[in-house]
Amino acid sequence: MSHCARIIGTGGYMPETIRTNEEISQLVDTSDSWIVERTGIKTRRIAGPEETAASMAEIAATQAIDMAGIDANEIDLIIVATGSPDRVYPSTGCLLQKRLDIKNCVAFDVQAACSGSIFAMSIADQYIKSGAANKVLVVGSEICSRLVDWTDRSTCILFGDGAGAVLLESSGEAGILSTHIHSDASYEDMLYCPNPQVATDSKKDEQGFISMKGSEVFKVAVNTLGRIVDETLEANGLDKSRIDWLVPHQANIRIIAATAKKLKMSMDRVVLTLENQGNTSSASVLLAFNEAVRDGRIQRGQIVLLEAFGAGFTWGSALIKY
Ligand code: COA
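^ thats the input. predicted complex w/ coenzyme A below
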């Protein structure tokens, strides 16, 4: 096997400040028990006033680079997935390139909402498979807390901030086995975040906050993630019993449990971080992956299924032989 994208480093960063369900119930009409029962979330992290997607990405990326034991200047492509970029432009990828002091590489952002890091891994995989890149840094970094309306109880309970990273290297050994990504914008109104500065007259009253039809999103997410699991297994001629770990997007414990049930996996084979992180959008899958690699749950040679679903709708998976 040549030109396979092997994971040689992982990293993750969560801001220091913890916001509990109790604290949110001081802001909106909700309760710890409602949030825990409906979502599985107990606390989430909130970025400090001077933190940004790029500053958090730098910390996660540096960890991944250190684990891989390479010089940052060996990286020839940086892809940052974010829906909360520091600036409209330059891209957060470019800002990260500067922070990492990489003189000569390509850097850009991918915007696929919560599926962003799976989309970014898919792009990285194509670059490596084709021989166009040798070492690719993929980061998901999000400041969701600044896109959330803290007076809207249907969304503010769900999201958190953080960054996750993986470093991929062209290798003869197995790595990413396949990626599968999809989009369907017929659902654009179910989950969106306006950009008021470029709004048309008819939309100029919209604020730049996440808007979501939660129960509709929930149903589509469960069905769609079930389908992507089938598609991924089929493409690899793999039985579901072969999957060692499921690393799902961390949006809601009930969505994750439905996917695990479809795979006939017990929940102790599912990497869960949402209890203390909430939904960190494009950072979530990479944060969970990093945690399970670093605590030794995910071992070299094991088969890991990553999957995510987000606004667009977008959805995708990556099957990895770690
Ligand atoms: N606290 C208390 N009550 C709340 C509440 C909160 N934080 N948020 C909503 N409610 C109320 C609603 O107003 C509604 O009241 P009503 O019956 O009087 O109208 C009731 O709870 C049920 O609302 P519903 O939206 O049907 O609840 P739900 O069981 O679907 O749970 C979510 C809501 C948001 C937790 C759930 O739909 C969800 O997780 N959806 C997917 C979200 C997601 O994954 N988004 C990101 C995709 S990447």
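The longest helix spans residues 214-235.
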